[in-house]
Amino acid sequence: MDIKPFEKKVWLSSPTMHGEELKYITEAYETNWMSTVGENINEVERQMAEKIGCGYAVALSCGTSALHLAMKLAGIKPGDEVLCSDMTFDATVNPVVYEGGVPVFIDTERDTWNMDPVALEKAFELHPTAKVVVAAHLYGTPGKVEELRSICDAHGAVLVEDAAESLGATYKGRQTGTFGDISAISFNGNKIITGSAGGMLLTDSKEAANKTRKWSTQSREAAPWYQHEELGYNYRMSNVIAGVVRGQIPYLEEHIAQKKAIYMRYKEGFKGLPVSMNPYNPSVCEPNFWLSCMLIDANAMCKQVRGESEALYVSEPGKSCPTEILEAIAAINAEGRPIWKPMHMQPIYRMNAFVTREGNGRAKTNAYISGGATGADGLPLDVGADIFHRGLCLPSDNKMTPEQQDVIIEVIRRCFE
Ligand SMILES: *Cc1c(COP(=O)(O)O)cnc(C)c1O
């Protein structure tokens, strides 16, 4: 195969519009509801609550603002330790800090790439005062929500579910976003459906939904003037953004089917290579397949070293590494991405505790700096660092054609030659 760069860039995951978005935006314009009030907002709240199966969906400016108000509802106070997913986008944990909370990072499990329930249990032993857990579903694959839920219940902790990446994914037939006491979803531009921006807080509690509505519109009290008893925020979704979301909602299932086909095509295309896809257990869950990811077998990794802002690798026959593959993908005008760098490895969170299934993860050296601890499987005990080291996100845009995907697969195969 003679490989030439794509004329038009193949994105990691870009917005896919269908036309109806324009109709609802136009409606907002023509009726002059160019505001944070209007029919589109009412409709997306109603439709999403129904689709997901939660009592209330409150439309907000973004997923991060939904998570911020979730932290307030969870009652985080300055100095409180909060047990958080470690391998995730930093928007999962920053809202904890907005409220003065102190994130304690919980290591990742190998079988879902989400918060490890064993490590969570360990964390409650080490941090018994923690009363809030924030768990994300990475790349659209549900974590072990039942286990996480029952550990939270046993310790009287509130579970905040970050379902920003997993809209439409199910666990034992139930939608993600319904397992947390409070959950957040996102309509950011690269999510499975988008409003260009926007997000929602999900809850079964009428009281929590009402508080969220009030806080997100500057906390006005019922009075003839602007009366304030509580701190307010300008976090409400715009009726124009809601128009885009409203137009996208009917296409959620179609997008999921396209993303699943992309995942399966990669899986098939990588047969015989020393790699695996981001894992899930089809007998308990159905992901939304937002991003397809790959993990290189430990013994097929060429030498790769990452500093704080640069990476180096040594190319080797039969082996490869994420840096080499990402460069090869970029060279044909396609977009891949490293795995989310775990929070415990981020300079901003270097002083925070990190708990692996073996206990205090800070006591172990990073496995990729000499002397790192390994488990019985010979793999590093620091699972997040290991997946970050060996994994990457593949171009997963639902407008990518099968022919383009075949070229990407071929380019990756050549990295292992
Ligand atoms: C996208 C994302 C968010 C934040 O959503 P925004 O709408 O961009 O604020 C939060 N958590 C995770 C895991 C995400 O991927």
Question: Care to count the β-strands?
Answer: 18
| CATH H level, superfamily name of the largest domain | Type I PLP-dependent aspartate aminotransferase-like (Major domain)
Number of helices: 12
> Which CATH top level class of the largest domain fits?
Alpha Beta
- Please mark out the parts with pLDDT under 50 across 5 or more consecutive residues, or reply none: 367-371
Estimate the global geometry from the Cα principal axes: globular
Written as H for each helix and E for each strand, in order along the chain, the element string is HHEHEHEHEHEEEEEHHHEEEEEHEEEHEH
Radius of gyration: 22 Å
In terms of DSSP E residues, the strand content is 15-25%
Q: Bound compounds, please?
A: pyridoxal-5'-phosphate
User: What is the total number of structural domains?
Assistant: 2
CATH level-3 fold name of the largest domain: Aspartate Aminotransferase, domain 2
* Major beta-sheet overview: 9 strands, mixed
Structural class, by secondary structure, is alpha/beta
Helix content: 25-40%
